[in-house]
């Protein structure tokens, strides 16, 4: 029998029970005797019945509200891609009344994360997507979330001790290791490389950036131990108008540096400076296919970009919550995004929306 055409009436006749009893068994409702339950389960097995989870979810007619907690960001930044993917997934599951509310925190101020988490939990959400902050703060809130049995997804940085429903993001260490390997294919004879950071009070924005740098330095230590890595901090406490002066002084005093790397999405800060100052013998490697980075790739001041597929991350986070909460399905606990290398030759073929 075609299991897609099996009706509740067919199951009831096979089991010798009422249609109402079958409906209660299928939807795991109470008031079903042990004898009737055994008859229905036997009939389901004999008929190889596979429930249509989508149809059941639609019939349930319930609304599902989740929250997505992201770092504050500028327009046209990496997190814009994540937001677009999140909203695209909500549109995809609109008939199931799935919605996601976006909240923002300052990555350098944990109290802002606590504020938005308190706001989120007051709403008693069905699910939560989070870009993590410091582990001690995360642990406090994740303990509460587990206590209230709210499924949550970690995005960007993986913290397995928090026991999330699932994680979406790159393997940061491997990504940094890969970046070093690609960079040194261009610069095998260099003696010094510039590492551009953006820090505040001595801290970088995320654990992910730290892990990328660890992977990068690991490769360099093993394969190019004599290469000097010189750091430049375009501090977030400094006015952006001063960046040109910082970079001019650096490159003037380090004329032998021809290659730079950064582990954030702001490679364009150096790339645009190189174009303005007409330094055609220096290139930078960075992350994220944001518009300003892409233009520097086209103009030749950025050699490589590593894409994180932010749109796909945002989309699949919502999809995972949908499958777990609405369809009651299991999801993979770890989902690593591809490490994709973009150059002048392929950047215009990059698919931000890589779903389906």
Give a brief rundown of this model.
With 356 residues, the chain is α/β, with parallel strands linked by helices.
Structure description:
The protein is of the alpha/beta class. It folds into three domains: 3-51, 434 Repressor (Amino-terminal Domain), CATH 1.10.260; 61-170 and 310-338, 3-Layer(aba) Sandwich (Rossmann fold); 172-307, 3-Layer(aba) Sandwich (Rossmann fold). The protein is built from 13 helices and twelve strands. It has a six-stranded parallel β-sheet, with helices on both faces. Helix 1 (8-15) packs across helix 3, helix 5 packs parallel to helix 13 and helix 11 crosses helix 12. The longest helix is centred in the middle third of the chain and has 17 residues, at 207-223. The two termini are 31 Å apart. The mean pLDDT is 90.
List the helices and strands and how they pair.
Elements: H1 8-15, H2 19-26, H3 34-46, H4 53-60, E1 64-71, H5 78-92, E2 98-105, H6 110-122, E3 127-130, H7 135-147, E4 152-155, E5 166-169, H8 172-186, E6 192-197, H9 207-223, E7 228-233, H10 243-253, E8 259-262, H11 267-276, E9 283-287, H12 291-299, E10 302-307, H13 310-326, E11 334-336, E12 340-342
Parallel strand pairs: 1-2, 1-3, 3-4, 4-5, 5-11, 6-7, 6-8, 8-9, 9-10
Antiparallel strand pairs: 10-12
Helix pairs in contact: 1-2, 1-3, 5-13, 8-9, 11-12
